[in-house]
Design goal:
Layout lengths: L8 H11 L23 H17 L2 H25 L2 H11 L2 H17 L4 H5 L14 H18 L6
Length: 165
């Protein structure tokens, strides 16, 4: 998808493959060498935020997004606080501005329609593969482990059975 310059393009293609009926498998013995310095450019945070939100909008049905909206909104508020504290709030806001730019809506909507038209599996079948925990983060966070993760798990156990689409 040409909407993704970098970041989340792998998630997008993996989920689209599942939605189209392909089988995705894990090859645990695989080795990937990615010569990369994550801390090199703060611009990466713009692309990560924009593409994360774009991924959700383009790949999931509106009823699912509405059902997930409380946790998505809470996540956005938490990310705004994190972005402010970590110094990348301008990149976070730039991502929102990019998504809210009317001249881009036509392309985003067209790609959404194309992805939705090709799918053979429900959001439910895809979301059953997702986890409710924030694991494998770059920095261990006791607040996330003791408070956020248990709350997310409880919320997900309540909401997941409601997702039908």
């Amino acid at each position: 998808d040409e909407d993704y310059f970098l970041y989340h393009e792998d998630l997008d293609i993996g989920v689209r493959l599942w939605m189209r009926g392909w089988r995705c498998v894990l090859a645990p013995q695989s080795v990937v060498i990615h010569k990369y310095e994550f801390s090199r450019s703060i611009t990466k945070l713009y692309w990560m935020e924009r593409n994360r939100m774009l991924f959700l909008f383009q790949n999931f049905r509106i009823p699912t997004l509405l059902l997930l909206s409380p946790i998505l909104l809470a996540s956005e508020l938490g990310l705004l606080v994190l972005a402010q504290r970590a110094g990348w709030l301008p990149q976070k806001l730039k991502a929102w501005r990019s998504l809210l730019t009317p001249s881009k809506w036509g392309t985003y909507l067209r790609h959404r329609r194309e992805k939705q038209a090709r799918r053979r599996h429900s959001d439910r079948s895809i979301l059953l593969r997702f986890t409710s925990q924030l694991r494998n983060q770059e920095v261990r966070n006791p607040f996330v482990e003791r408070i956020v993760d248990p709350c997310l798990s409880l919320w997900w156990r309540c909401v997941r059975p409601l997702i039908r689409w």
